[in-house]
Amino acid sequence: MILHTLRLRSFRAHTESELSLAPSINLLYGPNGAGKTNVLEAVHYLCLTKSFTASRDRYAVRADAPYFEVEGTVADVREKPMTVRLAYVPGEGKSIFVNGAELDRLADIVGTLPVVVFSPEDYDLTAGGPSERRRFVNNILSQARSVYMETLMKYRRARRQRNEVLRSYKKRSAPPPDELLAPWTEKLVTLGSRIVHRRQQFLQDFAGDLEEAYRRIDAVAERPTIAYDTVADLAPDAPPEDIEEAFRAALDRKQGQERDRGTTLVGPQRDELVFRLDGLEVRRYGSQGQHRTFAMALKLAQYFYLQQRNDTEPLLLLDDAFGKLDAERTGVFLDLLRSDAVGQSLVTATRRGPFEAALNADPEAHCAFHVRPGDGAATVEPDPDGPRGGATTPNGVASMPAEADSGAPRD
User: Fold this and answer.
1) C-alpha triplet 72, 76, 78: angle, nearest 5°
2) C-alpha dihedral over 153, 157, 163, 167, to 10 degrees?
3) What torsion, rounded to 10 degrees, do the Cα atoms 163, 169, 172, 178 define?
4) Each residue's pLDDT tens digit, 234-277
5) What CATH class does 115-308 carry?
6) Do 115-308 and 1-110+312-411 have the same topology in CATH?
7) How many CA atoms lie within 13 A of 321 on its CB side?
8) DSSP string covering 259-296, please?
9) DSSP character for 177?
């Protein structure tokens, strides 16, 4: 899958910016705060309808603007170009359009444009709390299997309803009637067991991708593994009926505590994934370098997994991913980005220098953009001295030579 063009309007630091992208490495370089990450964030909105930061949608609207809009032209090598546009109006919400037709639900785009993002915040994947690791798994499975996302959404609704019953009767200092709680408990068990079962299957498949990713980016012969701590001590290949039985038993044990606290205490929302290197838990014993390498391997493994399941190459977004890597590791990763193993990537950095050799190796495959603060708005300029250089039109709209600006897939 190739993102050929990208347009940002009233988005973050950008009043109006348009880029025509190369099929492999696309470097966006410039000072911190210039608006480089905004470009990657806009791509993420097109793919998953939300930011990869914790920021709310309204904060992405440029000051004094009534809305923001991002649009991209995407094509798989086997298909015609497709235009995807997302618009957000504060107070009204988001809408997404494919070839001009509005989708019924935002969730319908998820998985159509698979994306993997690596950013400095990914340190939390290995060093932070379990919610970060659950979010990581949910992101992968939602892009790979729409049925997983549907199940997850239904489970969350059932848990909210069950919690509402528990909270309301906690306020009354009385146990909730079984006829009110039992239906939501049954939905919780049925849907939650499906989620646990799918996560178990995923982790068995993902183990090979993780080992392959680690081998590609690290010369040290350490073996990465992931252990899954869920509703009970289940075998990795436990069937759904065994998971349901264990789920119900755990709910029975927590019944009194749930009534006292007014919330559900059992389920996949409390799952934990334990990352280890040669048997030692990374979160507790890993060095900073091991944390950084493990997180990068996780994202690369995510790329491989989605590439295989979606039958297309995901977009790879790397936000300041090389800032804390040594020269050797940077070289290894750049070689990987230039290889056939990875498709299109968008990379942000403060300097162009470390990418010089990679960009010049194949001017038709790679390009660079200089992002700088303008008069109150970011300006994106194709690097005039680098591969695929071009001119800049007013208002920070970057234009490329005619042959590069075509919507047709590149060889």
Assistant:
1) 145
2) 140
3) -170
4) 988 999 999 999 999 999 999 999 999 999 999 999 999 999 99
5) mainly alpha
6) no
7) 30
8) HHHTS---SGGG-EEEEEETTEEHHHH--HHHHHHHHH
9) P
User: CB-based contacts of 337: which residues, under 8 Å, 6+ apart?
Assistant: 24, 25, 316, 345, 347, 358
DSSP states along 171-210:
HTTSPPPHHHHHHHHHHHHHHHHHHHHHHHHHHHHHHHHH
pLDDT in tens, 67-123: 999 999 998 756 678 999 999 999 999 999 999 999 999 999 999 999 999 988 888
The pair of three-digit structure tokens given for residue 276, joined into one six-digit string: 């280890």
| Rounded Cα–Cα distance for residues 139 and 299 (Å) | 11
Give the helix/strand (H/E) hosting 98.
Answer: strand 93-98
Domain 1-110+312-411: CATH class, spelled out = alpha beta
Interatomic CA distance for residues 72 and 5, integer angstroms: 5
CA atoms within 13 A on the CB side of 314: 28
- The two three-digit tokens of residue 256, written as one number: 């009194």
Domain regions of the chain by residue span: 1-110+312-411, 115-308
Determine contact, residues 52/118, Cβ cutoff 8 Å: no
